[in-house]
Amino acid sequence: MVDGAIQMTEDAAGRTRMSVVMDTIRQRIAGRSLTPGAKLPSVRGLALTMKVSTSTVVEAYERLVAEGAILSRPGSGFYVANQAAPFALAEVGPKLDRAVDPFWISRQSLEAGDGDLKPGCGWLPPSWLPEDSVRRALRTLSRADGSTLADYGSPLGLPPLRQLIARRMAERGIEASPDQIMLTESGTQAIDLLCRFLLEPGDTVLVDDPCYFNFHALLRAHRAKIVSVPYTPAGPDIQAFATTVAEHRPRLYITNSAIHNPTGATLSPVVAHRVLKLADQFDLTIIEDDIFAEFEHTPAPRLAAFDGLDRVIYIGSFSKTLSASARCGFVAAKPQWIDGLTDLKIATSFGGGRMTAELVLNVLSDGSYRKHLETIRHRLSLAMSTVCAKLKNLGVTPWLEPQAGMLLWCQLPDGIDAADVARAALEQKIVMAPGNAFSLSQSATNFMRFNISQTLDPRIFDVLGNILKDRRH
Amino acid sequence: MVDGAIQMTEDAAGRTRMSVVMDTIRQRIAGRSLTPGAKLPSVRGLALTMKVSTSTVVEAYERLVAEGAILSRPGSGFYVANQAAPFALAEVGPKLDRAVDPFWISRQSLEAGDGDLKPGCGWLPPSWLPEDSVRRALRTLSRADGSTLADYGSPLGLPPLRQLIARRMAERGIEASPDQIMLTESGTQAIDLLCRFLLEPGDTVLVDDPCYFNFHALLRAHRAKIVSVPYTPAGPDIQAFATTVAEHRPRLYITNSAIHNPTGATLSPVVAHRVLKLADQFDLTIIEDDIFAEFEHTPAPRLAAFDGLDRVIYIGSFSKTLSASARCGFVAAKPQWIDGLTDLKIATSFGGGRMTAELVLNVLSDGSYRKHLETIRHRLSLAMSTVCAKLKNLGVTPWLEPQAGMLLWCQLPDGIDAADVARAALEQKIVMAPGNAFSLSQSATNFMRFNISQTLDPRIFDVLGNILKDRRH
User: Fold this and answer.
1) Which end of chain A has fewer CB atoms within 10 angstroms, the N or the C?
2) pLDDT at A259 > cutoff 90
């Protein structure tokens, strides 16, 4: 290492040593290991620790001064600026390729224009949802009493909707009284409340690898340490699960049992049993996020059914089968936890969305809803075969053919980088979901998640075919 | 202190020394200064620190063992049980009289039966809200396009609603482009997102004393340290403000400027100027929660207008004047903060409530909405005189007569405890809001907040009159 020369060689992520130093300091400030007013490490000290030249550190510090992140006090050293930067979720954790950042897919999917195609998004096209029932429910709601239209909801949420949810859960073998069920604005908000309830900053949480990308984002927002175990077609790799819980003692495990996101896999009863046994042994609480439940043809085993809502907490939502525009989810947990969760819900969002809950109740009570679900399942089955066949033609191989649902986890031809494909597709107004966004270990470079209900337009296969062809040369 | 005798004398809150010891340990566990598996202080050590007898500590530890909170390892000592209790918001901070716990008023108000009277709640009776407009808006919504009814909202929220909010803010002298405005599910959710964005656990936040009781609950949920300054009829006591920011260096100040909750006071331009000057000097960010804005007759000075959304963040909502059943609020902040806030919103609640935003837009665009606001303001003026006069007859004295709004902060006759009155009123199905729920310093024992729109039923004055009469003997 020669002092006086700023190293311009790049690391694996293509960053110069100077940007590595800048990122390190920025992360310490963001994570508050360096608080406002705190003195930065000396130039020489940091150069030694990071194995870079002192001039690299000087240059990095000077640029951070220019950014306003730190201050220079001549003769004394460098200090964190008093107004610390706000918590930047996108900066927490390892710096990722923007295209596989958990926020990239969310943003691209949510911001996509009406003409854009979204094989990477996680929901059905509006035309698949029960539009007529929703319209009827809105008209019914327009005749509701004044209190329904104007007042805050009760803390747990609309009682008849909670009763109906309890009955529907019973059909999946999960017993819960309506008083164990709390309505939320969404499945995501339910998990967020549970993280507030069960986690302290720095606690460890276990997820599947791959898992729903927003789990990563949500857990970062809670300053949790995230660990993962590989997911197999029958559930988490139980050997890795055992080792990981023993080593890291996570407080929580967040998973989907019935239709796993992104793989579409189904938890086997044997793996369910073993997961619960290990959870008992290591005192692990499990959040079972079951928002795709209604796509199933035959109910798969649920951790919550095996366990009886003791150490398993069950989450559901109506965004996938009814409407994502009307926000309504729920959490079912053991009775002694509901009060604490309700306090947190009131403190952080006050009343729940009463009008939306009434709307959901109206649609669910409508005789046509079960028929609607059957239609969706049938359409998904057909689309699954079609999309599988077409993808295979392009050399894109499903990891497994899911029993139900809209998600298809696929391997691209050898050596092709999914993030690269996603970037190229976005230029042609197609939003895709590259594998590493779902992978804590960043081991899914070669995978892509498809939503078969949004992958029926022939243009997707044309564009994808061309992108793959270009990259095979 | 005599060893061997368990002291049964009570402290100010009526707790025995043993329960004080138990509460201390419970709070350390809840706050994770004692983590799962950690060894508890020795019996003798804790007895010395807490100035109690060793037998008091032994008894407290044994009861905590019985509760499952801690474990005894004979010959070794006492240890925190492995499965730490979930985060109990109601247990954080000093143990309060349940009747002045911030959750008490929320729960009682939100859970009140239809026949109950709620002079203590913070919203208008449904019959005061624009029921007909909401019904019309629901019918309009029932004819909207499929995407509006089924799809997730865009990350910032419905563009035309954000444009309309920007125009309405401009009328109050606050300039913000629609891109600086993010829709949320409520004003509370907006403040919650800002706390996630701007606070780390342990950061200090400044509030008014008294202030809206849910600020206390929300800040506890963020593990913030809360400090307060006395509120005067012209805004925070500026001398106390200067001393407190200098001493505690809070990162945030949360306040209402126009119609202060619970006092109904209005910030004066001079105090606004001084607050902002101190904020500049001590690098303080201010959240101006302006959810009562539309009740004003003439716009009062806003911190956000003086400051131009530089260090002030502005919050609004439609729960108070349109509907609390349809949840919709917003936050306006400087452009460079919006992206980070949006990431947090996506991570913790994914899409916003598009259908509700459309509903709010429909009602606000309805020509009748401004007329509706005028009617509400007029009714509130009339109710204010009536309720003031009737309360004065009972010896209940308004602290000031607010220029607008529904809130009236009153002093009860000398020596009468508002929490005691609230408990007695609840037995007769009347929910009241005792002063100390709003006061960090617990110095409002003798105060009560009335919502004049919900204090028109003669039974309230009969019941209150009798309760006060009983206590004056």
Assistant:
1) C
2) yes
